[in-house]
Amino acid sequence: MAPVAAAVTRVLITGFGPFQGVPNNPSFAIVSRLPSTLPNNIEIYTHPSAIPVAYHPTINVLPDLYATAKPDVALHIGVAEGRKYFAVEAGSERGNFDLIRDIDGKNFTDAEGDAAWGNAAARLNTDIDLDSTITKWQTRTADFKWPSILSRQMSVLGALAEQKVDVKASHALSEALGEKGEDVSVAAPDPNDEVRWSDAVGFYLCGFIYYAGMVQKSVQSAAEASPQARVGKRDTVFMHVPLLLTEEEIGVGVNVTTELVQSLVETWRVQKAG
Fold first, then answer.
1. What's the rounded Cα separation, in Å, for the pair 178 and 95?
2. Which controlled-vocabulary keywords does the entry list (predicted)?
């Protein structure tokens, strides 16, 4: 008897638009190049435009986006300018989104957070098993030919300078967004890994969409309550990508992302069956 095919798993994926120091955000460049389906009965629903790097437009779009896509798994992607690797973040914290103003010159206050998220915990972690996911992801990308992303910091700075970007301000912002210690509750990453886990999502729009997305996924899961539903589960993750500049690098980013999606879905299916 032939094995029963897995049910279709739907994955929502978003990327961000430009902000200070990043006029061409590689997160949306990747999202815009993803296929609509992958092997193993995976459907990809991509938001058709870049999410603005602004708090209120981001939180306003999420309810309709999740309601329309009805994802089993959600993946939000952003850029970490100073990094030289791809990383899935463990979680995000609320209460710090008033530290840095967005591209509209606004922040997101604690009072707005209380109104939007009620009594949700100060910190939320994804409910998807990261140890399993990262192990699969590293195996799937083990034979990748990595472009020179990971050793061209000076050329990145030169490119930014040519675009008349305030490099000093850009890097100061980058440091403010995500310099936190790694969470030892997950196996420590090897510093040589091109794909890995992290716990430094930061307090800007990357951390914001991750926290808001986990809350929204919990709401969606609870609304779908049935014997088969993972009620209230935060099946949402966030990936940081390096500052990819060339088409070759964006192409690698697309391949890395599709392998992450496969890894996430495999892990999610095992968790759901369990």
1. 15
2. Cytoplasm, Hydrolase, Protease, Thiol protease
Is the confidence at residue 29, as pLDDT, over 90? yes
CATH class name, domain 9-269: alpha beta
Torsion of CA 64, 65, 67, 69, to 10 degrees: 150
The pTM score is: 0.85
Cα 239 to Cα 13, 120, 204, 231, distances in angstroms: 10, 22, 14, 24
* Average pLDDT rounded to a whole number, residues 58-84: 95
Contact in structure between 217 and 268 (CB atoms under 8 Å): no
CA–CA gap between residue 43 and residue 11 (Å, rounded): 6
- Where do we find the tokens 């437009």? 57
Instruction: In whole angstroms, give the CA distance from residue 265 to residue 75.
Output: 11
Q: Residue 148: its pLDDT value, please? A: 72
Q: How far is CA 176 from CA 49, 158, 179, 250, in A?
A: 26, 22, 6, 25
pLDDT band for position 274 (cuts 50, 70, 90): confident
- 128 pLDDT band, cuts 50/70/90, is very high
Query: CA triplet 191, 79, 129: central angle to 5 degrees?
Result: 60
